[in-house]
Amino acid sequence: xxxxxxxxxAGVSVSTVSKALNDNGRMAAETRARIxxxxxxxxxxxxxxxxxxxxxxxxxxxxxTNDTYGRFTLPVMAGVSEALVDHGVSVxxxxxxxxxxxxxxxxxxxxxxxxxxxxxxxxxTDRSLPVDxxxxxxxxxxxxxxxxxxxxxxxxxxxHGASLATTWLKEIGRRRLVHVTGPESFVSVRERASAFRxxxxxxxxxxxxxxxxxxxxxxxARLWKAGGERPDGIFCGNDQIARGVIDALRARGVRVPGDxxxxxxxxxxxxxxxxxxxxxxxDMNLKELGRQAGLMVLALGRGETVEPGLRKLPCRLVVRQxxxxxxxxx
Amino acid sequence: xxxxxxxxxAGVSVSTVSKALNDNGRMAAETRARIxxxxxxxxxxxxxxxxxxxxxxxxxxxxxTNDTYGRFTLPVMAGVSEALVDHGVSVxxxxxxxxxxxxxxxxxxxxxxxxxxxxxxxxxTDRSLPVDxxxxxxxxxxxxxxxxxxxxxxxxxxxHGASLATTWLKEIGRRRLVHVTGPESFVSVRERASAFRxxxxxxxxxxxxxxxxxxxxxxxARLWKAGGERPDGIFCGNDQIARGVIDALRARGVRVPGDxxxxxxxxxxxxxxxxxxxxxxxDMNLKELGRQAGLMVLALGRGETVEPGLRKLPCRLVVRQxxxxxxxxx
DNA sequence: TCGGTTAGAGAAAACGTTTTCTCTTGTTGA
DNA sequence: TCAACAAGAGAAAACGTTTTCTCTAACCGA
Lengths: 330, 330
Fold this sequence. Notes:
homodimer, alpha/beta, six-stranded parallel sheet, 12 strands, 42% helix, DNA-binding
């Protein structure tokens, strides 16, 4: 079922068919309509390989990630796909772990297939993928992973997210705020901690540990053992830590949100919705980030110029029950 | 950088180059080697679009899923990708939610791009995707989702997994076993329950609820309120329920694994490893399932015939601390 | 010396499109 | 009545490969 078959069925030449379907050239409106009708009838769909060969656009892009578990990649992917499906673009997903050789294989395979662009994404915004994407013959956009100098990079605004969370805790009347978060080696951790202190006070305590529930437990143990004034608002570096904190508080008979309000980070729904009580948390809008990355790589592919540099997208606070009521409901 | 440039650089014709690189035709070994060397030097890579146009093989397959969260899709995808990258095949990932229109758009886009095959996957083995893949001009393999009659379908052997878990509980000396699981409407739930009873006894109790931690809590509440003999081994329908069960037991002062052994299902690592104690659970080997699906769709694409029907892959028990020691260590 | 074979290499067709160029026919204006 | 032009449609080239076919020259045996 090629354009030749369609041409034969319509009694015209292939060039006429092509022009009819693409609204190109000049021809009787009646002819155009008839060809389109017949095409629809016999279900003709042009071969994208042939089309791509000629136009050197494959309507295909690659999404490269080292986030095997997909907690960050999947929302990004969903956004990319959603933005591009309207343009007829399909997405190759390549999970390359942290293996440079595997990365090169996948990148080469994508280039062979003439992808119109590549989006790099990962699990950490201050580390880059184990593969060099500079100087590729196709546009590259970095989303939620570190880009090369002069590249287009999108990321979540960690400072903004932390401000949202901390401001919220203050607005609902919490005064003794602490921040329990991940390793200080993460840039995002430092940015969040800095924003936290900007709002909570420069002497507000920040505790660094690992990204796990157990660290949440341990942090609460330390805080409650320490004596002195105990916090009434805890902003956690991710939802897993928040979960550990909440469990540890409950185990101590501390009511959440009655005695202490807890806010998480990531809005990892399957976790945030299952904590008891459900977790108020910061959403990094990764889907929107993916959407924008998709549109940008497309624009670059069309030859449009996109201002290079780091673009930080705002976060969003998702309010559930772990904080208590809204400020104006108190 | 095309084959013509390479031909010019080597001082031969394009046909000679093609034959040299593909080890086809007959030519002086010296010529062949020289062409290969020059190709490597200037970094020539053939355009897959042109190659695909001629061979009508695109070295591309599509993975269709309605599992937005990706808990099941990601391991399958990893397996598919791992199996196919060696063959130079790239994978289009299409998340279609449960939207038939979106499904059709993605399938059409993939067919336009001449995919060599499609793998359908989902979040539930007894429901099919909201899109009809029968009668497509490319081979289709169903993995972890319901296939059409006469199709090739791969799935995990739920009965086997349940047997593994239950047998293990018996072998470590547990005698009063119960099964706390998901809605009876799931075929997998019924198969697991049936296998559980085959091992634990036909009167062993099975409790159906929803797939959430809260149901785990509630189930324990019911069991402990009921009076009479309490269970000393609980086999849960997934890791979230198991997590709820463990938390509820601890809240009641019941020791895990001291008093009660708990086994989960799914080996959802990020959950299973973070429960306290870490969860012994059944792994459905979804990556292996993906690997096999990838190889099968490739074989079908080569014209090989694959026995149609439902293929059930064995599960695997991942032993962590929630059950206590191995039988022979007691 | 000559017909036949073979090694080695190039020419050309093919894949399914799009696009530019050319051709025919009919119309318009002077 | 005729040149100029436009509308409508087809022919052909192009994209980058692979594959089949053809050509040339060397070699062999009779």
